[in-house]
């Protein structure tokens, strides 16, 4: 017992104390935002320095959105969280009162400074002639999308496919179900995560269409796979609104409330919105979106709230054991 | 006991069987170990030396390497102190339930590293036993360096102890008793009598411990918090850059980690050889 106690006391004494006077922000975010915040952070730090004379350094942590929320609940000292789903930030409020339940009303546009949508990535020249959702059901076309049971991104893809069939003229639940059933017959492998699915499509060369986030698709088509892929925008898709919030309990203790709030408000400024557009996310400010020009063509967007009645309801109907996903894949 | 004649080489096995088994073992070794490992180095250099060096000099990579080195050093220190104490205690004292204690020593080997990491979350997380107390004292254990050191130390605890226990038992108390009778203090006895007899075993354990500590992924991943440039160890950094499509950088770092493994393997063989020579020499 004694060595353990000694070790424990030793570690407790060297434990990193959270210093109140140093301006250090920790931004706990999800996977695809790393490059975005790497571009945003120095701009904010320079602005804050000019305004207050204080030096602020911003650290980033990235991982699956749900896992990151769990870490903050377990004590990861995040000044701000910038997660994929409002639902994940709600968990910080409901499970441990780290911030008030009304956090989403504290910043403009439901605390979403940027949005994204699900698009198609096809091989260069679009050899299969894919223009819209119905083309995915052409004979011989293979579609790559991860498993909605394990991947958050895959759930968006699933709901995008379901929702476009449901919300178009003459659409119905029965038609949506028939469409998604047919679609999943064309999926050769169900990867467990979105990055895995991208690797399957890009590196291993499997499939004709990848269902992906617009920012991920832009990353591939303008970056690693330049010239080998192109993006096809369907006529309608789902709107994802990643949310941001400062964590009251942490910023109060660290004395970073003012700078954390300013950091998130900065995301709504024209300068930040332009950086957001450059990194492949859609600026939530309509004017900034228009300024970004042809990069983000207009399409008909629907949300998880309408027609799916929010994430809780969508999960019950589609993804829990025995939900529509289990039903349509069992029939295969 | 009458001396048994050694069987002539290969008696009982036809030659073809011996060759088939050898070929099988070699093919397995080549296909599952040598080729994949060589491929890591090949992939690391596929984009040229410049990219290779740049990805190791990258700020986040450099900080990850530094964190891996410092946390491994701390973990090795803890494991060595613990291992010496445990081996000496269990090897010298007939404590009740001796076998059980020895089995408990192996616990970190048997437990999945992820479970080990979650154990520390349960201890030091905000919901955990010590969480509220640490929180009141503004001290961060998990999602900071102390947590990474603890998790690494936990999974490497048995290495030194397991190496030393049989040596301590074989050494016996006679030499130490003689030293004490001749007037040496307990500390002198330890430094001049016990430690020299254990030195090769200790070194062997430390090398094993260090190479495992450098490579630990699961337990550290759970308690790290993944803060770039702060709580990312080298293995975590490799996974992160791989997932960001920076394959060249990922394999450059992976080859560095493989190199550490190869060096420790060489050191380990050297130490084993020296230990054997010392034993045969005396």
Secondary-structure blueprint:
The complex is a heterodimer of chains A (332) and B (282).
Chain A: H1 2-14, E1 16-17, E2 24-30, H2 34-52, E3 57-63, H3 65-74, E4 80-83, H4 86-96, H5 108-111, E5 114-123, E6 143-144, H6 152-167, H7 173-185, H8 194-202, E7 209-213, H9 214-224, E8 229-232, E9 236-240, E10 243-246, H10 248-254, H11 257-266, H12 270-278, E11 282-283, H13 286-291, E12 300-302, H14 310-319, H15 324-330
Parallel strand pairs in A: 2-3, 2-4, 6-7, 9-12
Antiparallel strand pairs in A: 4-10, 5-7, 5-8, 5-9, 5-11
Helix pairs in contact in A: 3-4, 6-7
Chain B: H1 15-44, H2 48-57, H3 59-92, H4 98-105, H5 107-110, H6 113-124, H7 131-136, E1 139-140, H8 145-171, H9 174-181, H10 186-215, H11 218-224, H12 234-243, H13 247-281
Helix pairs in contact in B: 1-13, 2-13, 3-8, 3-10, 3-12, 6-8, 6-11, 8-10, 8-11, 9-10, 10-13, 12-13
